[in-house]
Design goal:
The protein has five helices and six strands; from the N terminus they run ββββαααββαα. It is mainly alpha-helical and 145 residues long. The protein has one domain. The strands form three sheets. The chain has a two-stranded antiparallel sheet. Strands 3-4 form a two-stranded antiparallel ribbon. A two-stranded antiparallel ribbon has the order 5-6.
Length: 145
């Protein structure tokens, strides 16, 4: 493509500020790479998140300040479809299950896994999809001014 005696190469995708942009506006690969980065980041702080002497509040703060920004970097440009929303919710619930662990049934005294609704009740912050939506709205307002 040429414009004002300058030529531009047409590409299928390119990386800009750490975010992969495609000509089809597909974010599947971007989310996949962000979740891989989350996995690497999680393994660096895994010992802290499973350490029983740390409080849940400290573990949530570690998650919110170290791990979550790795996943949400560049999310202002994402247009989420249902599949990506589910993938991100699964990521979040997996992280919360690691932080909160399982609970003991009061009657049977057996350990049971927490359901998604219970996890959201224990974690008093917005879920990841709402965080992305609010960041997109804030970014849109910033760009439109």
């Amino acid at each position: 493509m040429k414009s004002d005696n300058s030529s531009f190469e047409k590409v299928e995708e390119f990386k800009c500020s750490g975010t992969t942009l495609t000509n089809q506006n597909s974010i599947q690969e971007e989310i996949k790479s962000r979740l891989k980065a989350w996995n690497a980041c999680y393994h660096l702080v895994q010992n802290l998140l499973v350490f029983s002497l740390l409080s849940k509040i400290i573990k949530i703060n570690i998650h919110r300040t170290i791990i979550l920004p790795v996943v949400l970097y560049g999310c202002e440009t994402w247009s989420l479809i249902l599949r990506e929303k589910r993938r991100l919710s699964v990521f979040e619930n997996r992280a919360l299950r690691i932080i909160f662990g399982s609970k003991r049934d009061e009657v049977t005294r057996e350990w049971i896994k927490l359901y998604n609704g219970e996890l959201n009740g224990l974690h008093c912050s917005l879920n990841i999809v709402w965080v992305i939506k609010t960041r997109r709205m804030r970014w849109t307002g910033h760009v439109s001014v």
